[in-house]
């Protein structure tokens, strides 16, 4: 007996769908449900329905609003720098052509390094006293004293410092995607622009970037989502400090849950965070990326 | 059709083009022509490569320094005296070797689980194009936007309720929630490239649909399966947040051990760098070996989401 195609397709998709339903959808449902309760951190402890109270507490808390702004600033810094550096490298590789292939491969290596290792490594490079970066800048005559910049101890700049490993890790990714996009720009368009006398900046801003638009959009959306979830690199470098100056949303939620033992409040924060991510991502996907609308 | 949801330019040329295309590109494309310009570009590239490669080299050099040299002020780049002390210290610490086994075990289970679930699902989505398939692949894309911290906590309590607390199985399942959606997207684009006549011919020859999938289609996409497997493995090997939430003594993976070094043993930078190097080098070598496949997967994965 033959079953219909549609049934067969459903049969093939069912195990994966079931897995995602149990291990993603259900925990998300639990997260939202928990956000309406005041929960004791002890297993089997009290669980009282408090309605929207956790949400009011979240929005009233300075830590939460601060983490929200910091997450936004962090994401913007990471994605902007990474895009600029990645595009620069992609153009460099493209202009050097085939001979640069081996270097493109070598350039990939940070992508394989665990974020926790990258965070540790950069902490070691930026740490006060024996950090190499301060020393090198001092020897180059840029700083009067190797410890002049407290990369990880100055609350004013720490959010930028903790972003460095993230930028280092994933510029390769941005470069790779943009490089693939550049390879697909037909040579005759470039040639025509060149014959029309386009200089380098005009070539970049009027020809190349517009042609790369779909690729750029995808890369920015994908990386934006990842940067907004940053956790490992920041936790190992500063654990959110000093004075919460590098505490982003993932860290705050983690600490609210684990350190301060408030699962209800952590769940409310998690729910708001998730909704914000979905809203921004849908907006980006539908207006910038526009899947299917580009030829 | 899933492929139309993504801009197409990347799909054609991710693993090197043909000669004709290369030549035309050389003649008219963005490649720099003048010799002086090219020299300047090579100098720029060399500078970028040194800056980019240096941090990891410094980690390697540090791992060979004596403990006193490691935190010397001012720091030196190369070790004054090369020693393996940090390696013996780090690897000799209780739980460190076990954590490598846990990492490998978790990553292997998660990779297999991801493939077993993603391959049929992606085939069902691309081959039959039912409305439910379209909804499913969009749902998988949405899953990518879920912050791990949001599901990590309820997931951890589910696992302990199921009696799986502190096991590699529990962590593998958690890691699969990350790698499964990406695997589905990657595999759908690989299946999309398989001509349908292939399995139609097999069915005419008397294969069942499942038999045609297993004997004809799967061998054709084996390269794609390898790419997907690499990504699933790397995702699990490098993951930290779930590992932190869901493991204690028995199933702790190396990233958690590396992070714990900071608090448990003061700041033993030498051992930390040695352990970090041991953990990173296998995957770096793997990447250099399989770079073509990884580049193909990375660009596809990026386009797909």
Automatic annotation (TrEMBL), chain A:
Q: Which Pfam families match?
A: BPD_transp_1
**Where is the protein situated, by its record's location annotation?**
Cell membrane
- Sorted alphabetically, which keywords does the UniProt record give? Cell membrane, Membrane, Transmembrane, Transmembrane helix, Transport
The membrane spanning regions, by residue number, are 12-29, 72-94, 106-127, 157-182, 203-222, 265-289
What InterPro entries is this protein classified in? MetI-like, MetI-like_sf
All copies of the ABC transmembrane type-1 domain together span 68-284
GO biological process terms, alphabetically, are: transmembrane transport
Cellular component (GO) terms are:
plasma membrane
Q: Which PROSITE patterns match?
A: ABC_TM1
Q: What is its main location?
A: membrane
Q: Which CDD domains match?
A: TM_PBP2
Membrane topology term: Multi-pass membrane protein
Matches recorded under PANTHER family: BLR7065 PROTEIN (PTHR43005), INTEGRAL MEMBRANE SUGAR TRANSPORT PROTEIN (PTHR43005:SF2)
Q: Name the family the entry cites.
A: Belongs to the binding-protein-dependent transport system permease family.
State what protein this is by name: Sugar ABC transporter permease
Give the originating organism. Pseudarthrobacter sulfonivorans
UniProtKB/TrEMBL annotation, chain B:
Q: Which residues form the ABC transmembrane type-1 domain?
A: 100-290
Looking up SUPFAM superfamilies in the UniProt record yields: MetI-like
Q: Which Gene3D superfamilies match?
A: MetI-like (1.10.3720.10)
Query: Where is there biased composition of kind Polar residues?
Result: 1-15
What's a BP term from Gene Ontology annotated to this protein? transmembrane transport
Chief subcellular location equals: membrane
Report any Pfam family annotated for this entry. Answer: BPD_transp_1
Query: Keyword annotations for this protein?
Result: Cell membrane, Membrane, Sugar transport, Transmembrane, Transmembrane helix, Transport
Which cell locations does it reside in? Cell membrane
How is this protein situated with respect to the membrane?
A: Multi-pass membrane protein
Protein's UniProt name: ABC transporter permease
